[in-house]
TrEMBL record:
Positions carrying 4-aspartylphosphate: 53
Protein name: diguanylate cyclase
Coiled-coil parts of chain: none
High-level lineage: Bacteria, Pseudomonadati, Pseudomonadota, Alphaproteobacteria, Rhodospirillales
EC number(s) reported in the record: 2.7.7.65
Molecular functions (GO terms): diguanylate cyclase activity
Length: 454
């Protein structure tokens, strides 16, 4: 996996050393020698990851990281802070500023590349979601979310997987009151729980026996329901090889024993922030897709989606019955708006949409065609069979008064034009024939159905 990495250090020799190591692994390297340069390069050069020195004159690495995470253009870029400081308080300060990981000088090459690859995998997934978000935003559908350093951590659900009773007690005491926690000593129980509950993070002890910690992490990553949950691995000071393996199979972060409480909480909070940002991206994308294909007033599919779906039905139809189409137009609807106002008219349109949905078959699709017009697509349905659906719709819409919030009850009838497809039909020709039938129904007295033979 190639990527562009920004190296930030005020000592040129350090930059050169890291640049040589990274380019040998086919990464593209750009550099900055101070905080302001780093902030500018992060926006202009758009790196995939930043290796950021802590101790720099003027603006230190902590402040640079805070500013990177506060900028929507760079907030999603993973930051690994490189420091000679070994105090847990410094790691906590960096994690609180938004850093994704720490490397201590002198930097171990194996550890560095394992962390780089792990964070790049996460960014690759988030970039895919962000690209979809940008597409939605460009269509004016929905604004994309921005990562935040401020979350309601007390509501976050954490699953602790530890089979040592004494360590179980220690872990629960460490994060008591910080998160909502569950504890299990069995890996398979943890996996089953995570399949049913969406945890913000799962903490796994590397020393776990049933199954072993790394195997459980692997199972989390290969199971559909759990592959995206963040995993925090608890490792010993001599577990470097196993830690590297864990990062390669998808472990998100780690804490070295003996565990510093503040660092443990800070790392869990970082995982919660990333998980919730990832969840918001997915949710917004789903919402944007729904908004792109549905009518906001009635909740029915919109005209654009209906036309595309109809074209697909006609292209894929292998049935001799073909596809029938009914276009529904409300009679004298302009009078509803003119007499009772647009809020009453909107209530009517919503209720008509509801009545249509309740009175079509499971295979049928309803859409709002525009204004007071609706369309129902009936796959695998000839003209004779479509009469049953069309008559049911005519009676459902006009046979019972509709309740509006601003104008009370009113009765609204409709006219329907119905036709069935020929082998040579396109979506346009089929809709045109149904529209001609609707025109005939409107001019033939309204509150009626006209069937236009194929």
């Amino acid at each position: 996996m190639t990527a562009r990495i920004l190296v930030v250090d005020d000592i040129r020799t350090n930059i050169k050393v890291l640049e040589a190591k990274l380019t040998s692994e086919y990464y593209e390297v750009i550099s900055a020698s101070n905080g302001p340069e780093a902030l500018e390069a992060a926006v202009i050069q758009k790196p995939d990851l930043i290796l950021l020195d802590v101790m720099m004159p003027g603006m230190d690495g902590f402040e640079v990281c805070r500013r990177l995470k506060a900028n929507p253009d760079t907030a999603h870029v993973p930051v690994i802070m490189v420091t000679a400081l070994g105090d847990p308080e410094d790691r906590v300060q960096g994690l609180s500023a938004g850093a994704d990981d720490f490397l201590t000088k002198p930097v171990d090459d194996t550890a560095m590349f394992a962390r780089v690859r792990s964070l790049l995998r996460v960014k690759l997934m988030l970039d895919e979601l962000r690209m979809r978000e940008r597409t939605s935003a460009s269509l004016g559908v929905i604004s994309p979310p921005v990562p935040s350093l401020h979350e309601d951590y007390a509501a976050a659900q954490i699953l602790l997987v530890e089979d040592n009773p004494r360590d179980q007690v220690r872990l629960q005491r460490m994060i008591e009151g910080q998160f909502r926690t569950e504890m299990t000593a069995d890996g398979m129980d943890a996996l089953n729980r995570a399949r049913q509950t969406e945890y913000d993070s799962v903490v796994v002890s590397l020393s776990l026996q049933n199954p072993d910690g790394l195997r459980l992490c692997s199972q989390f990553r290969t199971t559909e329901e759990t592959r995206n949950v963040p995993i925090l691995l608890l490792v010993g000071p001599d577990d470097q090889k196993q830690l590297v393996k864990g990062l390669e199979i998808g472990v998100t972060d780690y804490v070295v024993r003996p565990i510093d409480r503040n660092e443990f909480i800070a790392r869990l909070r970082a995982q919660v922030r990333r998980k919730r940002y990832q969840d918001r991206l997915r949710l917004h994308y789903q919402q944007s897709m729904e908004m792109a294909v549905t009518d906001p007033l009635t909740g029915l599919y919109n005209r654009r989606y209906m036309a595309s779906h109809l074209a697909t039905l006609l292209a894929q139809s292998a049935s001799q019955h073909g596809t029938s189409v009914a276009i529904i137009d409300l009679d004298h609807f302009k009078q509803v708006n003119d007499t009772h106002g647009h809020p009453a008219g909107d209530d009517v349109l919503r209720e008509v949409g509801n009545r249509i949905v309740r009175n079509i078959r499971g295979i049928d699709m309803a859409c709002r065609y525009g204004g007071e017009e609706f369309v129902v697509l009936m796959p695998d349905t000839n003209l004779e069979a479509s009469e049953v659906v069309a008559n049911r719709l005519l009676n459902a819409i006009g046979g019972k008064p509709m309740q509006t919030r601003s104008a009370g009850e009113m009765t609204v009838t409709c006219s329907i034009g119905c036709t069935a497809s020929l082998e040579t039909d396109t979506a346009d020709t089929l809709l045109k024939r149904a529209d001609d039938a609707l025109y005939e129904a409107k001019h033939g007295g309204r509150n009626r159905i006209v069937y236009r033979p194929s």
